[in-house]
Amino acid sequence: MNRTEPLVQFAWNGEQPRLAYSLLLFQVLTGCRWSRVASPGNEQSDLLWIRKSDADPWMVYEISESWGRLELVQPENQRLETACFVRPRSLKPDWLLSMVWMALRIEERLGEKDVHGRFVSGSSLAARLEVERIPWVHRWAESLANEWGLKVDNQPVSKVNISVDVDHLLAFAGRSYGHVVLSGIRDVLHGKVRKALTRWRARAGGIDPYDTLSEQVDLWEGRPWNYFALMQLSRSKQDSGVDFTNHRAQTLWRDLDQKLNGALGWHPSTGASKGARSGLLEQEYRQVSRLLGREVVRSRFHFLAFQPEVHYPILASLGIRDDHSMGYVDRMGWRAGIAVPYPWFDLEQNVVLDFWVHPFFAMDGHLLYYRPTDQPFDEWNKAHAACVEQGVPFSWVTHWRFFSEVDPKWTGWKENVKKMAQWGEK
Is the pTM value of this prediction over 0.85? Predict the structure, then answer.
């Protein structure tokens, strides 16, 4: 929509912050700016009035009764083409309720969790219907615009957003001398003498296979990717990164932050995530901020071990303003039905937070571990083309260690990612 066009006018009775949030989502997704004006004298609280200007007649949109208990509802309609809900006194789709239900991940409150407390994607309505790759909230917002006679700019978007999780900053240099010596002896006993030498040299101050910062910088071509560093409070099976006290690691984290002009993000560990209510998430946040000498404002959960309704308000209270965790663990697709950053609404406090959710569509692990394929970059290229066709950006997540190309399976990773970064320039 042309930004110079007149504002859309909305009117409703009462405060209704959840309704106001749905209209904020509508604006974010369509670009249709709006303002609230006085209602036309009707005292009903279940109606929304819409018009383009003072001279236009009012259009009426029925508000579902479910708005008051949004955190408990489940959609009865199984056809996402016509939204998840219908309006109370008609068979028309309830676009607004459906948008908020999907964006705030209401189904995850009641859905199955895995052993790590993560939402199981098979419990997602969109995934069950095998339409999780369609940005449904965008489509519903566009349907609203059409219903209200508003123009939406649907120009294709070819942008590629790349994020890098720094789970394993260093392969060997970040381990204790005892660990490195014993592991090297084990390598020798298994006939891997070269690996043992590499391990010992790295710990003694030599080149570490995973230290590829300079090579990655060359791939950016002036446009840094998003980076999120794991600096766990303590090691565990899932949180197996470099010990926080390692001086070489601290220097490298600071160097990366400097290269990113102070934009290095935080990768909250699973331990901190699980202990969020007992203060571990805040403790790790303070640790990372002290190391970087600044307040960190961007995050992406390690292992995607988070529950939006639990962790997002905590992150917002710490000062995090942007989180990049919204995506499926085991499949490609739009977990919230949205492909662009959008604000989060806290249902418990009934307020919009100063906190933006950045969705991603695909992650390297989807096609390397969960659904293996011999040509993953070909599949990601097809996914990018599908996103362009849908008119949304392609957001992809990879991991720091792959750029080392140490494992034969990672051979050619740097060159392929460089090509991927150029897809958005077509």
Answer: yes
